[in-house]
Every structure is written in structure tokens, then in C-alpha cells.
Amino acid sequence: MARVSATTLQKEFGKWAQKAITEPVAIERHGRESLYLISAERYQSMRRLEHRSLGLEDISDDMLEMIEKAQYGK
């Protein structure tokens, strides 16, 4: 993953925006990651995954058996 300071990002936004098309760019402030610059395609993909829910048909018989046997609160 590429890394860039917020100051450098401001000065060279075009360069880093182009880089973010192929990989996430960590934006650092005071030496610590504070933001990420990602492509619209990657963002949309993450949003789709975030909203995906599993149905019973997505859960294997083995997994259902494990769930049934699970003990809660012990």
C-alpha cells in the first residue's frame, strides 16, 4: 500500500489520485494514518459487501449443526 503525507497529497493530488486507482493510498497526518484514498470501483465493491446478507441457503449443514450446538452465556 502506498503512503503519503497530507501535505504532499495536497501538492501532488493528481499523482496520488491516479495511484489510488490501482491500490489504496494511506494518507498520514503527523506520521499516523488518518485517511485512505481509494478508487470509486473499490469503494462500490466494499459497499456491496457491506450490504450483503446471508440467507439460510448460504449456510452449510455443518455450520448449522455448529450453531445448533452452540451454548450461549456460559
CATH homology group: YefM-like domain
CATH architecture: 3-Layer(aba) Sandwich
Which segments are poorly predicted (pLDDT under 50) over 5 or more consecutive residues?
A: none
Counted by DSSP, the helix tally is: 4
Q: Name the structural class.
A: alpha+beta
Task: Provide the fold topology.
Layout: E1 2-5, H1 6-11, H2 13-22, E2 25-29, E3 32-37, H3 40-51, H4 61-69
Parallel strand pairs: 1-2
Antiparallel strand pairs: 2-3
Please tell me about this protein's structure:
By secondary structure, this protein is of the alpha+beta class. It has one domain: YefM-like fold, CATH 3.40.1620. The protein contains 4 helices and 3 strands. The chain has helices at 6-11, 13-22, 40-51, 61-69, and strands spanning 2-5, 25-29, 32-37. Strands 1-2-3 form a 3-stranded mixed beta sheet. A hairpin with a 2-residue loop joins strand 2 (25-29) and strand 3. The longest helix is centred in the middle third of the chain and has 12 residues, at 40-51. It is elongated, with a radius of gyration of 20 Å. The N and C termini lie far apart (42 Å).
What's this, in brief?
50% of the residues lie in helices and 20% in strands. It is of the alpha+beta class.
Offer a few descriptive terms.
20% strand; 74 residues; 3-stranded mixed β-sheet; alpha+beta; single chain; YefM-like fold; 4 helices; elongated
